Amino acid sequence: xxxxxxxxxxxxxxxxxxxxxxxxxxxxxxxxxxxxxxxxxxxxxxxxxxxxxxxxxxxxxxxxxxxxxxxxxxxxxxxxxxxxxxxxxxxxxxxxxxxxxxxxxxxxxxxxxxxxxxxxxxxxxxxxxxxxxxxxxxxxxxxxxxxxxxxxxxxxxxxxxxxxxxxxxxxxxxxxxxxxxxxxxxxxxxxxxxxxxxxxxxxxxxxxxxxxxxxxxxxxxxxxxxxxxxxxxxxxxxxxxxxxxxxxxxxxxxxxxxxxxxxxxxxxxxxxxxxxxxxxxxxxxxxxxxxxxxxxxxxxxxxxxxxxxxxxxxxxxxxxxxxxxxxxxxxxxxxxxxxxxxxxxxxxxxxxxxxxxxxxxxxxxxxxxxxxxxxxxxxxxxxxxxxxxxxxxxxxxxxxxxxxxxxxxxxxxxxxxxxxxxxxxxxxxxxxxxxxxxx
Amino acid sequence: xxxxxxxxxxxxxxxxxxxxxxxxxxxxxxxxxxxxxxxxxxxxxxxxxxxxxxxxxxxxxxxxxxxxxxxxxxxxxxxxxxxxxxxxxxxxxxxxxxxxxxxxxxxxxxxxxxxxxxxxxxxxxxxxxxxxxxxxxxxxxxxxxxxxxxxxxxxxxxxxxxxxxxxxxxxxxxxxxxxxxxxxxxxxxxxxxxxxxxxxxxxxxxxxxxxxxxxxxxxxxxxxxxxxxxxxxxxxxxxxxxxxxxxxxxxxxxxxxx
Lengths: 439, 258
Hints:
The structure holds 2 protein chains of 2 kinds.
Chain A: H1 13-79, H2 83-97, H3 100-104, H4 106-126, H5 132-135, H6 137-215, H7 231-262, H8 272-288, E1 293-300, H9 303-310, H10 312-329, E2 335-340, E3 343-349, H11 353-368, E4 371-373, E5 379-381, E6 384-390, H12 396-412, E7 418-420
Helix pairs in contact in A: 1-2, 1-4, 1-6, 2-4, 4-6, 6-7, 9-10, 10-11
Chain B: H1 2-15, H2 18-25, E1 30-37, H3 45-64, E2 67-74, H4 76-85, E3 90-96, H5 99-104, E4 105-107, E5 112-114, E6 116-121, E7 137-141, H6 145-153, E8 160-164, H7 167-175, E9 181-185, H8 186-193, E10 201-208, E11 215-222, H9 226-241, H10 244-252
């Protein structure tokens, strides 16, 4: 049954920030939506104040003024010195009591009608009874007092209309201010949260990436990133990991290619080209510091017969085994290469010819005593001859020539032995015989 | 080049309508034709005050509208038809706002408020009231709401309705005994009564506001002049705001008509 692997690949930065922006817009829009009714309430109340309340206040003021005039004209009816004067005031009383502004207000209309009737009755009766004003003055004072109280009430009612609207506006403004402050807090918290998220999920990972890229190299381990939340950051981190892996792989490939270019494919020993280059460099170093150095040439004895007898596959096996034996016997610092066919070249740094001869002899003995298993099941034992020469005061080529001559001498003396070349001609050192070192 | 520019300008000016050319050349004040209610024969000083009040009101509003008003005194009944016919731009006749009138003309914002009452000789029964009167002769101004109201009552309770061209004429009919009562706007009635000998005349019955007999009083104008209506409204609001309206009223009357 196939299994499905769910792997969290992180959030895409664009989508994430779009979502955050949407949340912000929604939150802020919500706040504005909450504030908007209060703003509208203030506007509506202000409009109402201007369009309705103020005219209403004016209407109340007009009513209060008319009622007060009604009272004053009533006083004049009582205090008038002539009937014409009283008539004039009575007309104004009628006029004011008939005014629509008075009639619109039930209480005022009732009082005005009461006053008008009272004064009209008094005025008509005064023609036959001049003392009526004195007789009914108390009644008028009561009516006048009631009218005065009504004037005050009406004035206060008008003022209260303004108070109601202003209180309404103040309440709406306070509510709007509270909501606005709340909106600002929400925006502030959102911004802080946004900056924290930005630092945590974008800035810090980018800083880590910058540091990793700065330190990226073969000598450094692969960068170890904490798993990022943003998919883009995660991709960059993975790319850096792959880049480091590629560097390592390229280096390994380079080393492999270098090995292939420098070594003999059959024996795994250095090839002649690399040997010559490495030996040349080492020889210069040794000669610069006056250190002893020895070169050698070796050749497997009767290798042609072995090939003819056992076949080339056996010859290849013998060569491989011989190379292994050399690697195991010689020092790490010694250079050895397959010089050609069954011929090998050696470079022994930091040792004299005598010491090298000891080393070579140990190698010769190990080879001579070693049975080599062939692919067909048989086994053979081989020997080699070797010539050594001091290279501390000559060129590599010259030293190798002398070693080759010593090898030839070793072959001539009967093979399976190490021969040492004498000093170079310039040094005029007498050449030692092979037998001296045939241990 | 200059000659070419001058020629182009001249051509452009000649292409304009004559009124535009006039406006560009001197920008004179627009002329507004105003119909002012004819007060009728002089009765008393207060009557002159009413005439002066109306004239001052026209002058103040025209000044605020920055127009030159050409006034003409016409009978109340001729104002509204004149405005509808386009003979007048504005009608100052203290018009009550009624649905029927609203169908014919536009109204300004309220100038003041009015109601109606019966006026008659003092010897008439004290409890006389429009809706209880019987066998009486009633007079009102032609074209007024009062006359329209009376005409609806014609024939009922033996009432006889008489039409008069002006308020002064209506009152004269009462004074001459040719009518028992006049149904008049209270302010107009006051103006007429105030100069009469004490106790000769008085108001009767309840104050009448319903049936279009009371309410706000307006300037009327053609329905085709919305900008003029706005300008008049703005002038009235301005008068109220800076107190000039109240000063104008107090200048002519010992009470507030607002």
